[in-house]
Amino acid sequence: MTKAIGFLSRYRRHRFAGPFLLFSALFIAGVGFTVAQAATEVKQELTSVDRATLIAEGKEIFARGCSSCHGLNAEGAGAAPSLIGVGAASVDFQVATGRMPMADMSQQAMRKEPVYDERETAALAAYVASLAPGPAAVTNEELAWERDGNTAEGGELFRTNCAMCHNLAGQGGALTQGKYAPTVMGVEPRHIYEAMVTGPQAMPVFANTVLTHEEKLSIIKWIKFVESEPSQGGAALGRVGPVTEGAVAFLLGLGILIGIAVWLTTKAR
Amino acid sequence: MSEMKNELEPLSDPGLPEHVHRKSDVDPLAAKKAERQVSILFLFSAIGTVLFIYSYIWIPREQLIFLPIFGTTNAHQLFLGLGLAMALFFIGMGAVHWAKTLMPDHEVVDIRKEQRSKDEDRAAFVATVKDGAAQAALGRRPLIKRTLGLALGLVGLSPILFLRDLGPLPGNDLNETNWKAGTRLVTDPGDRPIRPSDLEVGGVAQVQPEFPIGKVRHLDDIAQDSVLLIRIRPEEFNLDAERLSWTYEGIIAFSKICSHMGCAVALYEQTTKHLLCPCHQSTFDVTRAAKVIFGPSARPLPQLAITVDAEGYLVAKAPFNEAVGPSFWGRDS
Amino acid sequence: MSARERVAGGTANFLDERTGAAKWMKKTLTKVFPDHWSFMLGEIVMYSFVILLLSGTFLTFWFDPSMREVEYEGSYEPLNGVKMSAAYASALHISFDVRGGLLMRQIHHWAALIFMAAMVVHMMRVFFTGAFRKPRELNWIIGVALLTLGIVEGFLGYSLPDDLLSGTGIRIAEAIIQAIPVVGSYLSYFIFGGAFPGELFIQRIYAVHILLIPGIMLALITAHLMLVWYQKHTQYPGPGRTEKNVVGYPLMPVYMAKAGGFFFIVFGVTAFLGAVAQINPIWIFGPYNPGQIGAGSQPDWYMGWLDGLVRAAPPIETHAFGITISWNILIPGLIIPGIIFTLMAFYPFIEQWMTGDKREHHLLDRPRNNPNRTAIGAMSLTFALVALINGGNDLLATHFDLSINQIMWFSRIGLIVLPPIAFVITKRICLSLQRADREKVLHGRETGRLVMLPHGEFIEVHEPLSPEKAYLLSSHEQLPALEIGEADENGVANPQGIKGKVRARMSRASQEQISKPTSQDMLELEDGHH
Predict the structure, then answer these.
(1) Which of A173, B124, C244, C457 is the most buried (most CB within 10 A)?
(2) Which residues have CB under 8 Å from B201's CB, separation 6+?
(3) Which of A225, A169, A237, A186 is nearest to B69 (CA)?
(4) CA–CA distance, C458 with B266 (Å, rounded to integer)
(5) How many angstroms from the chain centroid is the CA of residue A35?
(6) With an 8 Å Cβ cutoff, are C295 and A241 in contact?
(7) Closest-CA residue in chain C for A236?
């Protein structure tokens, strides 16, 4: 207590430190304003590659990197499911988001840096797709979400079909027994689309017959809007709702006020 | 542990510590400095108001600004708020600093008196009450006392009666939904009828009962009718014969309104076939007719019996056989 | 006579000739207030309430409390063309099309959170220092009433925008109403004007939120302050401070400047939060639709503990004779909160009953000097905290890699096991602090300096306490336990029976103390030394 008072009364001498900090923060902010954030998307089209070579290549990568869990012929074993009939979309989603190969046999595969590059992923997808027909990887022409999507409609669809697991602001949420729905922020549109079509892990499948192609594009457009949406009211506090708000009210709001109350009731020297 | 001790003498009270003069009390220069500091604080407030006015008038409502940590945020709202905060905050800081450094800081001692009144006042008070009661003569006129009691008791009923028209009586409303035998299942949103083949294994769809053209779907309807369709492999069901007959080719339909407190239950895990309610974490096992396996809900989700019509679209086989949503006193099942 | 003095004199004369208030004003303006930071907590609550009234009035100028369905066409593009209630649309209008509207909405919401937070901390201060003791029991009860009203008021307030998150809260409230035995479904149909959600509840809770409850709260706050004023403020113990006096600064001018300045500071800090921290971004949540839901749907923090209790409830319902009793809702939603608030309101009288101490108290207790009360407080806070943690179990699960099932089981067991543990530990800590105080008074403060005695032994130098400090550590009262319930010397059992026995036990528990140092102890010690 006496320490706190001593500390505060020392700071009385620097009572312009507060306003000074505020102004310097605003200055830094102005500088930061000019910093532009440019996200560059590199899209490579795998067009001129001979399909058979691709499949052969994929088979080789599969034997090296995937067969220890999924079996030599992708027939599945133990916890690792069979990949026959899962299609290229599923392989692209799992491998290109880094979920596969898994780091460890934990509850759930996490998004991480992909192990295979784009060409290797395409080869794997081509190999798995050659085993049995399944959902094909989505092409860039089909994925014209900026043109064909509708943000408002996407929001409605997201709230009906996605928000219950992924949170109203797409921040992700808890499932049972330690599983979770990951955040959808910062996910490639292609992967969002593939996830809806294939239903990876605990996620259910949203077939095009139930959620049409255009509706999926609308959902993507809404997600992309929310992702880039400026935080209208200041710091977004993680966009997870009242829990962080309550913590801020106690720690920052009441904390500052109690600090000032201590200063206010300390005798001046 | 404290027996006897309370009769012993406490340490003596050294009394209020001596008053220590502040620098500003003894040093006119320090007082002058404090005065300047207070004025500077008030000036900060004035600057804040200027910032507030500037932001209100000249920063456009949609102007964005990039701040480290904050990310992109709205400049109008931010500077308007900072201006207001400064304007108010520094008035307060100035006033407090003024009070602390320049106003007298001699502590004053005030004497308390007991809350209890003096005995003669209390006696007089009691006498007045008794006197008043005697003058009103309630005790001697029991008829007045009783009829007054009756009147007061009855008049209390009128406000309650006044509230009667707040809403209709529930009647059988809570037991009914818009699902009838043969009602088509349509997607929500979209209102498209569904064929069994539209739903893949591992797939889900939120559906509503099809309404005749012209009938508008209100939130009241959605609050009762929302149904979740789930398709799994038929051999994974663990149902009795009757409940199995309510499914169609592995497609099972449950009320989406939680049997606990009415939230929309929709967190379906296709790996475990569990449905989770995000509000209170009641967990339902889809393969066992939404039996509760975790959380506070005490009842399975009501299951809707489904089949297909002549055109091959999914329809309800029968209305729900129990009330959907949270429990209520008159709920019979 | 200067011009200023003439104006002041003239005003005072004008007022006194019309109201005869001079005597009262003289007393009032020299009223003494003790200075301590913890006495400012109540002021934070009051000022937040004023901020809420001001910012709330601003919001009513645009808010449309109607559930009429409209199609949104405002400046928030991703909701354009979406069907929603007029209430939600007007909340969006305030946020995006009224200059300063979003700021005011955020100030209003932050002020509400700080209002409730400061109220809880203020009550903790009052509880742990025993400020609720006679003659202030009535003010404590008013405080409990204000807390209850504050919780309801806050809940209604964040329900007004009719967004998906708040609608979910209303849905849960409706389920609690429905669960009330016998009349539940009737009450629900009356409140909502028919089936949930109906088209009326926003305008109804609006009237309650902006008129009925604030009106009652304003009346209670006035009564609360008048009692504080009339009974004079409590003060912390210390040299020169007794049960018969109050030491502090006069209202005019010091306290007025400080308290007045503090209002602006509280408003300034709230405005600062409103400027830099986004709260309740309803535009992201979308309009309410009972068929939709978001993961991580939580109430504001002051409702969080209730939600946590509801989550932890066992899945029990009774079905019989065509009726249903939902224990899983009734117990955590109504019965436990009812018991908690009743016990809280009556605690001053319960403590009087336990200790038999019915005297007036104006000097505050240091929490350690009343171990039993402090332990009861710690026990209650532990219960509320575990419930609060369970209310956010889904967020804790995702952010700390846990499972909701684990947290739920932790809370279910913790709600029963942890509070008693907290009680025991707190009581032990208080008693050891008392022991340390006694040591300090008798043997001085450990300085940490080691000295080697001539014969080679090392001792730590103890510095005697100043008389002020020694008095502070020893001036508290230590009452003996009540002597009831025991058989008297003739072996005749006490007529009070079990009730008396319970009371005697409670009294013994509440009077467990380490004997404080007395002047006799000091004398004996000095004799020993010389």
Answers:
(1) A173
(2) A205, B231, B232, B233, B250
(3) A237
(4) 72
(5) 23
(6) no
(7) C278
Q: Of B79, B101, B123, which marks where a domain is finished?
A: B101
ipTM for the complex shown: 0.91
pTM: 0.90
C271 in reach of chain B (CB within 8 A)? yes
Fold of the CATH domain A48-136: Cytochrome Bc1 Complex; Chain D, domain 2 (1.10.760)
CB C12, CB C26: distance < 8 Å: no
Judge: C231–B93 Cβ closer than 8 Å, yes or no: no
Is residue B294 less than 8 Å (CB to CB) from chain A? Answer: yes
Task: Report angle CA C106, C111, C116 to the nearest 5 degrees.
Answer: 135
Tell me whether residues C297 and B278 touch, CB distance under 8 A: yes
Q: How close B211 gets to chain A, by Cα (Å)?
A: 19
Assigned token pair, B205: 């769809």
CB atoms inside a 10 Å sphere around CB B177: 25
Residue B188 contacts A, CB cutoff 8 Å: yes
| Domain spans, chain A | 48-136, 138-230, 238-269
Domains present along chain C, CATH in parentheses: 31-165+203-309+346-365 (1.20.810.10), 428-529 (no CATH)
DSSP state of C6: H
The whole-number pLDDT of residue C494 equals: 59
Q: How far apart are CA C299 and CA B235, in angstroms?
A: 41
Tell me the three state secondary structure of residue C142: helix
Tell me the pLDDT of chain C (530 aa) as tens digits. 578 888 888 888 888 888 888 888 888 888 889 999 999 999 999 999 999 999 999 999 999 999 999 999 988 989 999 999 999 999 999 999 999 999 999 999 999 999 999 999 999 999 999 999 989 999 999 999 999 999 999 999 999 999 999 999 999 999 999 999 999 999 999 999 999 999 999 999 999 999 999 999 999 999 999 999 989 999 999 999 999 999 998 888 888 999 999 999 999 999 999 999 999 999 999 999 999 999 888 899 999 999 999 999 999 999 988 899 999 999 999 999 999 999 999 999 999 999 888 899 999 999 999 999 999 999 999 999 999 999 999 888 888 888 999 999 999 999 999 999 999 999 999 999 999 999 999 888 888 888 888 888 888 888 888 888 889 998 888 888 887 655 555 555 555 678 888 888 888 888 888 888 888 888 887 776 55
Do the domains A138-230 and A48-136 match in fold?
A: yes
In order of A247, C367, C383, C405, C427, the CA distances from C377 in angstroms are: 21, 10, 10, 29, 10
Closest chain A residue to the Cα of C107, Cα to Cα? A233
Cβ distance of B201 and A201 shorter than 8 Å? no
Residue in chain C closest to B259 (alpha carbons) equals C175
**Residues contacting B240, CB < 8 A, separation 6+:** none
Q: Does A157 touch chain B (CB under 8 A)?
A: yes
Task: Please check whether residues B215 and B302 belong to one and the same domain.
Answer: yes
Task: List subunits contacting chain B, requiring 3 or more Cβ pairs under 8 Å.
Answer: A, C
Task: State the Cα torsion A8-A13-A18-A24 to the nearest 10°.
Answer: -140
Q: Are the beta carbons of C295 and A246 separated by less than 8 Å? A: no
The dotted CATH code for A138-230 is 1.10.760.10
Q: Rounded to 10 degrees, what is the CA torsion of C271, C267, C167, C144?
A: 160
Q: pLDDT per residue over B144-199, tens digit each?
A: 889 999 999 899 888 888 888 999 999 888 999 999 999 999 998 888 999 999 99
Going edge to edge, which strands form the sheet with C32-33? B108-111, C245-250, C32-33
| Structural domain that includes position B39 | 23-101
